[in-house]
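REQUEST ID: PR-0412
SUBMITTED BY: lab tech R.K.
PRIORITY: routine
TASK: structure prediction, single protein chain
INPUT:
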Amino acid sequence: MKKWLLWLCLALVLSGIWPAVAAEPADDTPYSAPVRIVYPAENQRLPAIPSTFVAGSAPPDGKLTINGKPVAIHPGGGFLTMVSLTPGTYEIRAELQWNGAIYQSVRTVFVAESQPAPAVSPLTIQWVTPQEDQALLPGDWVKVVCKGSPGMSAYFTVDGMARRFPMVESPKSSGVYQGIYKMGTHDVIYQATIRVTLLDEKGAWITKEAQGRLSRFPDDLPVMVETVSDQTVLYAGPAVSGSNKAGYMMFLPKETVLQVTGKKGKEYRVCLNRTQTAWVNESAVKQLPTGTPPPMNIIGNVTMMTRGYSTLVRIPVSQRIPFRIDYDWEGRTFDIILYGAYSNTDWVNNATAGCVRQVRWYQDDDETYRLRLFMEPNGWWGYDVSYEGKELVLELRTPPPLLDEALPLLGLVIAVDAGHGAGGGAMGVTGYAEGDANFAIALRLKEKLEVKGARVVMIRDGDADVPLSQRPGIAWKNRADILVSVHNNSLGPTGNPFVKRGYGVYYFTPVSLPLAWEIHQAYQRTFGPGQVFTLNDDGLYHANLAVIRGTQMPSVLTESAYMIVPEEEAYLKTDAFRSAVAEAIVDGLERYAARMRKKKME
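STATUS: complete
OUTPUT:
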């Protein structure tokens, strides 16, 4: 009887009346099953979000469901859908009917639970900040925050001080309490413990300590440090969280001297002048001997000269001090601001040179010197600042003259950066790697630029990956006039690829904005409504991206399509689309170069 049933089941499967069921392995190892989930990854931990997208591949002539919901399969084989999530362990089930069989793929993810306020009873305190040690000066504010049972009275105390500092619940009934305390002139505290107390109406109470300890920063002698590497970053404030730094303020060369006036966690607060401060990670500096005085430079006479297509400005200094560059968005004025300096500038040698039409100096306060350059409009398109012995040297790069009005790129050196390495970057819905898509576009871009008379420097020329930190340096070593970094986009778990998709252009320095604007406009013309390839306009972005952060040349990063959108990944596999992307970039480059370059005088 059992043998008869077994043969009957086998006959039904072979006849197609009873489809076979095949399960795809849950991990990312190679498999033969035709349905594949690329995103999310197996065992991925997701934040407390209500939904996320699911992307993968399947045969276009199959019928697919995700958690029972029908999902369209793109002719290129990719699929994309959204699924609702519930906290905890969550399974995403893909089921494909194809060629008389049923194939299944299951992904397991872990969804975080949102943390509501603790119950009123029993009294609870979940956490207290600050979580890192702080050393502050008199006049500095200390902020204490806790989360606990809502609707209570709250205060905090600091060891060595008799006072109780009140805390306010905000927003109301949230269970989040905040309080502040200003370090006093006569406060003497070191590694003091901060304690938060909640009390209910019946007099019951609970206390919890903050993990971070509080100290008074020494102010009897200056604490001096110097940077230990080039491109040391100074931030606008302390880190928001462990992985979220504050905004970038300036990039300083090695051996720049700074005065420390406080510390939070692993970050120092440094004094630029009496009203301006910045923050630097302790690993980026080394402490100088106790008693080292703060630097004060007397700025003497300034020298200017031209060298090739550059204008050099030389400012005498006795020590390496922090400086900041500021210029207006039209590039008409260019300021070099030195902290810890005052003027003894009697004259400027060659006060009109290259792209500089006039020079003036200002003493903003008794320790801040400003040299202002009045520039020729569209007369420069990049700069570099470095210390050379006892001089701070500014190199302003002038656009090379236009050699042929019909070929505005003729004679330029353009660095083309194919983002990531072979097989790297974001993964497309059918497994097409972003690094490969980037390189394919970069090759087409190189071909078209060379036809226009440009010399192209390929940052990555082949499968080998190039460290991100080295890519801008390669462009500068080759004295590139412009840098274009070629990428394609993806999204994190909180994104919605049905809304956010298409092309985008990114820049960081203001000098790069005109170039980014021209390339973005070219994308709009190339991929707008009615064109062969239609894409959403994802925007023009100011973005803190390492590869385009350099100031030596106009630099942009392009994101031509989203790897996780099936139709856009399918576009990226075609030479016609790659060619269209390259044409758009070249169009933007030509319009920018034609505007910036002046015709060569005979």
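NOTES: The CA atoms of residues 441 and 578 lie 5 Å apart.
REVIEWED BY: pending
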